[in-house]
Specification:
Low-confidence stretches: none
Shape: globular
Structural class: mainly beta
CATH superfamily: Hexapeptide repeat proteins
Bound molecules: coenzyme A
Largest sheet: 9 strands, mixed
Number of strands: 25
Number of domains: 1
Strand order of the largest sheet: 1-4-7-10-13-16-19-21-22
Mean pLDDT: 96
Helix content: under 10%
CATH class: Mainly Beta
Distance between the termini: 51 Å
Number of helices: 1
């Protein structure tokens, strides 16, 4: 295709009928099925697959060995860690055909799924939620929630820059050590950023990491 503005490695298959946005990269041995719609500036690592009814937003980063099955919606800025697992049937049985019964799983804008975590289908992972490595998530996850363990439980909040938010101050405000953005529970279990709307893009000057996670923890 002369007019394609994405890159696919020679070992990858992008089926006729898949739509890929500008600047998207598909690396070794990955397969994008016909009908899949992938936004701009996404990166799919090695050995990924995207089913034909899947819609992926812009700037989505997918690490090696991730399959995105029919029924999944991936919004902008989602990060899927290596070998994480998404599912689409709660009660699969080889003898029973449930191809018309795939359950919907929605990963909202900016969510992160850690390495080797599993998302049981039919749930929604909130904006900027953070699923720890190896967690098994089977329930809806609120915006900014940090989910750890099996079954995954909420262990506080994670900022948009991916830092655990410490104890709130007297006004109930928690501050991200990297961005300085303030966060507050506007009602029990509902966290909002007071300085940047969840749907607004991150300002460019805040999009380059300069210190490691542990340096901010000190
Ligand atoms: C969730 C995460 C951010 C927590 O990091 P952290 O705040 O530095 O956590 P700590 O190392 O201080 O550990 C705090 C506690 O949680 C436990 N813990 C840490 N990560 C855990 C995980 N993924 N699952 C279960 N427990 C975990 C620690 O063992 C420790 O337990 P303890 O209090 O009983 O000693 C990190 O562990 C993680 O999973 N990051 C995702 C990494 C990833 O998948 N990257 C993909 C791109 S390469």
């Amino acid at each position: 295709m002369a007019d394609k503005n994405y890159f696919a490695h020679e070992s990858a298959y992008v089926d006729e009928g898949a739509v890929l946005g500008d600047g998207t990269k598909i690396w070794h041995f990955s397969h994008i099925l016909s009908g899949a719609r992938i936004g701009n500036r996404c990166v799919f690592g090695q050995n990924c697959s995207v089913a034909g009814s899947v819609v992926v937003g812009n700037n989505v980063k997918v690490q090696n060995n991730v399959s995105i099955y029919d029924g999944t919606v991936i919004e902008d800025d989602v990060f899927l860690g290596p070998s994480c697992v998404l599912t689409n049937v709660t009660n699969p049985r080889s003898q029973v055909n449930r191809h018309s019964l795939y359950e919907k799983t929605i990963l909202r804008r900016g969510a992160t799924v850690g390495a080797n975590a599993t998302i049981v289908c039919g749930i929604e992972i909130g904006r900027y939620a953070f699923v720890a490595a190896g967690a098994v998530v089977a329930k809806n996850v609120p915006d900014y929630a940090l989910m750890m363990g099996c079954p995954a439980r909420q262990h506080g909040w994670m900022s948009r820059h991916g830092h655990r938010l410490g104890e709130p101050d007297a006004e109930g405000v928690m501050t991200c050590p990297e961005s300085g953005f303030r966060y507050q529970e506007v009602e029990p279990g509902v966290l909002r950023c007071l300085d940047l709307d969840e749907e607004s893009p991150l300002p460019e000057e805040l999009a380059m990491g300069e210190k490691t996670y542990d340096e901010y923890k000190k």
